[in-house]
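User: Can you write out an input/output pair for a complex, sequences first and structure second?

Assistant: Here is one pair. Inputs:
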Amino acid sequence: MKVLLEAVFSPTFAASILRVTTPILFATLGAVVADLAGVVNIALEGMMLVSAFTGVAVSAFTGSAWIGLICGVAVASALGLLLGYFHLKLRTNIILAGIALNLLATEGTVFLLYIVAHDKGVSSSLASKVIPDWQIPIIKDIPVLGAMVGKQNALTYLSLLAVGVVYLFLYKTPLGLRLRAVGENPDAADSVGISVHKVQFIALAISGALAGMGGAHLSMGYVSWFSRNMTSGRGFIALAAEALGRRHPVGGFIASLFFGLADALSNYMQSLRVPGEFVQMIPYLLTLFALAVYSGRQMKTRRSFK
Amino acid sequence: MKKLLGLVVLVSMLALLLGGCAKPAQTPKDSSAGGKKIKVVLLVNGTLGDKSFFDSANAGMQRIKNELGAETKVIEMGTDPSKWEPTLVDVSSQDWDLIICGTWQMTENLQKVAPKYPNKKYIIFDTTVDYTKYKLDNVYSILYSQNEGSYLAGALAAMVTTSKMPKANDKKLIGFLGGMNIPVINDFLVGYIEGARSIVPDIKVAISYVEDFANPAKAKEMCLAQYEMGVDIGFNVAGGSGLGQLDAAKEKDRYAIGVDSDQAMLFKDSDPKKAELILTSMLKRVDNSLFRAVKLYMEGKLPFGKSETLGLKDDAVGLAENEFFIKNVPEEMRQKLQDIKKKIQSGEIKVSTAFGMDEKTLNALKDSVKP
């Protein structure tokens, strides 16, 4: 127990939480943007995966992690547009189209991996690049805080920055206002001359780009290669985090931080002989607990309005 | 537009179907005049490219083809378990002489299918079928003493963590990353712990299970946590997830031990700094064991209807003695490992196994090395 407490209260544990949170946070923000525009993006998982692959492949061929990142994000964003095309132009059910994209991404990335790396499992034969760690000049010298947030992957900082940017975009810009209007009531938005489809296309593209950042972090920040299906459900966890965070960027941030905390905790507890099965339950248990507390509080406020 | 798309999908599906049908029909029956070529097929219940287990089996098939002159084929059945049994049935009704499959996930399928094709011969590796319950005179099972190889890995880890090697610290703590809490993985663990204890009786082992063979990011995070706690050398037994441990080792600049295939050679060109930290890998020579089995089969000596356990004696498990091992592990440690290896081979050291070990004993063992 003492060892666990020591580990949990060490600043590196906080660093670990931020690292685990990064991909989920990006995807959660992507989920928020799409959902507010009234187009549920269930293909986040597939978009992350495609971006993770593209990032690795492009960075290996160009020698630049940043070009890899840009290409990964661009491809994920294009997938968002494709989802929009299926749903808005061809009128398919968006959930079904999303599932199809996820399946396509799972197997398609393996197929492409085989073409570029002659390997169906991992891309370790490609000399791909990683997004560098950044150091924050003054903060890194502060004793505890420095170890927590002083040196992290560039994408981790960008994910934190993205929370603010997405918030400002959604609530302080005209396009954000239109986007929310379209999600709230498309007919009303249409009646005041907003092109509903255009706004939804934009929302899906942004959503894809954000998911793409998360995917790129997995393969070019977290680890240094692409492996098949490496997202392992993070895109879906993001959908849960989005719901838990009440479709709000800041709420989503707190929810994904919460998932990150649970996950990091489970990683630390495992090595201390807490039964593995119990540890695997922790993230989900904590989620259920949080949902219960949250809905309990909501009921209370509703009652007090009566 | 929609119609066109539908048409394209339909046509491509048809093409796939036809392509799939065409193959078995094409396979020539060259059992005619001259030396009869035997036909061997390997069913992979997953995909190749795992950088450990199945790739090793595939390498064995290559040798069988080149050195024994057999006609071979490797079928990747994918990760959907519902497709495995039908594929096994399909293959059994074709004209293969030997059908090879592996892992505990295939045992039940084989137990069901093999009795229906008494004229076919089967080899299953890394598990055994239940010979008492089913009539399986045509099945040969190969088990590996991964506990023996892991004993060596554990001994090495204990020597390293108490040594003055540049990346070792003063804590007597080593790491173990398992893919899942299942008997095969625990067999590695039991050997690892016993081996480590034989060198340092009060050694501590940080044990984590990813519970997933394809989540390297989670594995990395777990191993970072282990290294953070003071682990200076860790052993990964987690298939594709295990690569996360190697990444963690690089980030924390600590040692690692690979598994199944030679994982240092995997990164030799693409990431030499990482390869330097992988002192050795505990090899499970699926390739050697399959080669040996097919060779015995061709000589008519393969004992069907029973299972065999192959260990250090048969070169079916062992440490990878590559350039990094020679360069980074001090001479006296290597000498000591050789001695231990000989003692296991001669039966002087008996390594316990997790197979048949009850939950209580196993947990007591794990608790006794709890950090």
